[in-house]
Amino acid sequence: MNRLLLVALLFALSGAPAWASSFAGSSAGASSAGSSASSGSTSGDDKVVVQARDDAAAFVATEGRIRGARLEAALMHLRERDPQAREASDMALAKAILAL
């Protein structure tokens, strides 16, 4: 599941937000990402990224001036897991998190 999430994030970075949103819908079933995370249906690693959505939104909306702790944790997690995420900017990864 972690690898699938990273692939979706990286694909979203390449300019395919429609695919990323359909991925989020299909991977979470009929529930939203938030209820999916709270129900325990995602792994702990996925929760790090899902729980960073609010921080990612603040980061994008303020053009990077607000950097929440959950966003920082998600960025670190993504970069630890995937070499392509290491190459992406913080803004690009934040936008990808929002696309899920």
UniProtKB/TrEMBL annotation:
Signal peptide span: 1-20
Q: Where is this region: Disordered?
A: 22-46
Q: Does the keyword Signal apply?
A: yes
| Bias kind Low complexity: ranges | 22-43
Q: Which keywords are on file for this protein?
A: Signal
Read off the InterPro entries from this record.
CHP02448 (IPR012661)
What the entry lists under NCBIfam families is as follows: conserverd hypothetical protein
Q: What is this protein called?
A: DUF2388 domain-containing protein
Organism, scientific name:
Marilutibacter chinensis
